[in-house]
Amino acid sequence: MNPDKNQIPENIKTIHLIAVCGTGMGALACLLKEKGYIVTGSDQQVYPPMSTFLAEKGIEVRGGFDAANLSCRPDLVIVGNAVTRVNPEAVELERLGLYYCSMPQAVHRFMAEAKRTFMVVGTHGKTTTSALWAWMLSQVGGEPSFLIGGILKNFDAGFRAGTGDAFVVEGDEYDTAFFDKGPKFLHYHPEVTILTSIEFDHADIYRDLNHVREAFRRLVNGAHPHSRIVAFGDDPVVTALMKETPCPVSFYGEGASNHWRLGEVSILPPMTRFEVMRKGERFGVFDTPMKGRHNLKNAMAVIAACDHIGMDRKDIARGLESFEGVRRRQEIRGVKRGITVIDDFAHHPTAVRETIQAMKPFFPQGRLIAVFEPRSNTSMRNVFQDIYPAAFIEADRVLIREPSRLDKVPLEMRFSAKQLAGDIHSKTGIHAKYFETTDAVIEALVQTALPGDGILIMSNGGFDNIHERLLAAL
Q1: Structural contact between residues 464 and 438, judged by C-beta atoms closer than 8 angstroms
Q2: Were both Cys, which of 108, 133, 163, 390 would link to 143 (CB 3.0–4.6 Å)?
Q3: How many CA atoms lie within 13 A of 197 on its CB side?
Q4: Which residues contact 56 (CB under 8 A, 6 or more apart)?
C-alpha cells in the first residue's frame, strides 16, 4: 500500500467502505450518509439485519469483494480491519492509486475532530459505560454524537450525529487495519478517558497480558497533559500503568485508596440503590436499573467523568435512573410460564462471572440457569480452559454449547466444552452438561426449567436465534 495515499483528502463526495457490514463500519456508513456523502459498501456476507438496515438508510451494499466495486473511483476508501491485503478490493485500490484510511481514522476526521471527545477503553464494560455516558450528556441538552458497539435502548441506535459539541466513542484495543496493526483507540484524542480494566483477551492478535498491557501503555503515555483519565483503581495492572501517564488521574472502585468509592448497596427490584463516596465524603445516593456491582463501578466511572466536566448531581441522578441499558447486556428477551429468558454478550471468564453474580439476586424464588456459547476468537481457544469453571460458581445449572466455529482454531489450541462441563461439576458440584447443537440445548431447557427460574444466555454471537426459539418452545 502506498503510505502517501493513506490519508483523507479535502473535497470528498464519494466514499466506499470495504467490509461494511461490521457493527462499527455499518454505523460509520450511516453517519457519513447523514452528513451528505454518497456512500457505498461491500462485504463477503450480506444478510439481515445489517443489510436491511443499510438499505433503509439508502446505502448500496454489494455482495462479495470485487475489484469492479471500485470502478467508480471513489474519493475515499475506508478499509475495515477484517480486510486482508490480498482482498481484491484492497489490491484494486492500490492499483488505482485511490486515497484510503482505516475506520478509526475516518471516525476521528468526520466525527471527533471538531468536538470534545470522551472515550471509554478497557477489556470489560466499554459498551455499557460509553452508552451511559452518552445518555448522561443528553440529559443536560448536550445533544451528543456517539459511536458505540451496541444498540442504546434510550436512542434505539448505536450511533448518532448530534448537534452538540460532545462525541462519545467506545475505544477498541483491537488492531486497526492490515496496514496499521496498532490499536484503534490510538486514533482519538480524548479530553476525558475512562479506563475500566486490563486483562488478557483477543488471543488471535495478542500473545499474553504483557502484550495487551503494551497497547494500553501507548495510550496512557500519549495522553495530553491537560486531559484526564478516570481509571479503575482496584486493578493492579491499571494502577501500575497510571504511574506513567502525564495527565491527572481519578481512581474509582471499592478500595479505600480510590478518589471515588462505592459505598452501601441495596437491591430493590427492579432497581439497585448505591452510595458513592468522593474523597471520603458522601457524594450522593443513586438509583439505577443496572444490575451487578460491576455495573455500579461502570456507573461510578461515568459519575466521576460527569462531575469533572461540571455536570450537576441532580442531572447525574436523573440520567442514572432513566438509563434503559444496551441491547444484549442483561436484556430480558421475554417471560414464558414464569421463566425469564435473558440475553447477554458475556464471553470472557471475568464477564461471565460478573454477569452471573449480577443476575443471581433477582431470582430468589428460582434458579439461575447459565447457558454459554464460547464463540469469540479467545473463548474458542483453550487459553481460559482452566479458568472458566470458577466463573460459573454462582449458577445453579450450566449448559455449554460446543463451539460451532472450531475449524478456525488449530487443533492443539481448541477449547473443549465437554471438558469444561466436567470440570464445573467436579470442581464446584454444580450440574453442568455440554451439547453439540443449539436444538439440544433448547430441548434440555424446555424439559428442566421451572417457574421462577432465570435462563441467562451468554454469547457474543447470534447463537442460532436461541432466545426467540426458546421462548416459542416454552
Answers
A1: yes
A2: 163
A3: 16
A4: none
